[in-house]
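The pair is quoted verbatim as follows:
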Amino acid sequence: MDYLCIGEPLIEFTAMPDHPQGFLRNAGGDTLNTAIYLARLLGPGRVGYLSCLGDDAHSLWLRDRIGAEGIDLSALAARAGARPGLSFVTTDAAGERSFAYWRDQSPFRSHFDDSRIFGGLPRADTVFLSAVALAVLNPVGRDTLTTWLQTCRDRGAHLAFDTNYRPHLWPDRQVARQAIGRMAGMVDLLMPSLDDIQGCFGITGPGAAMEALMALTGAEIVLTTGGGPVLHRAQGAAAWTSHDLPPAVTAVDTTGAGDSFNAAWLSARGQGAGVAQAVAAAARLAAIVVRHRGAIMPPAAMPHMTLKDA
């Protein structure tokens, strides 16, 4: 497959007062959101998802939902007696979201504790994960996954990492800094936000954040700044470039904005787009996503995106 995304799948409930049940149920989880949008952009069978669900009705529903998006399920394990994590999302008048989670029971958290899980996994050209996955894994599983990722890179796979920093998932900021810094130093593509770098490393300002990231890794860096310019540093380069975004749209729900940005960036760059084209494509998809409730907008709302359109 072209892409293998790693993470914790969630069932997402988005508050919708006008909905008959009061909420919308959908698949969720940051890297799963990216995987779904990536599969929609590229077509069936080109994106896989490495994770673990249970065997209850909710897990089966979520598995079916993921498969219906054309995602390869060969790396999505099922554990007897386990249940998936849940996420409840509410938004304010500006579309900014807040979350409540019930995810301690998720089988993903211990999925990599035994290294035998990696035997027979499909190979992919690009492996994508986020700091959320690192945060929720047991320390043993986190180390085992990191070792396997290095093996993938040694075999020629491209590693991409979203620094998605959620402080409540980590025991403390120092542990987060060490884990995120370690991963940043071994990947080919780093996708941080300014909020991540400020929250985890205490660095403010896009320029200072970029300097700190460049000292941390030789990877290609795509730094988003919350609607401001996207800063880009080519792999191993000594300087970065700045790319303005289109004017902001009125958001209904910002859930999934960064995840869809990542998907469109990966898709565009994988098809040979330049940096400016990829930024434009990523911004375009994210601007459509935030006009819909929930992280995953209806398939009918997906734009037909080509490099020419970007």
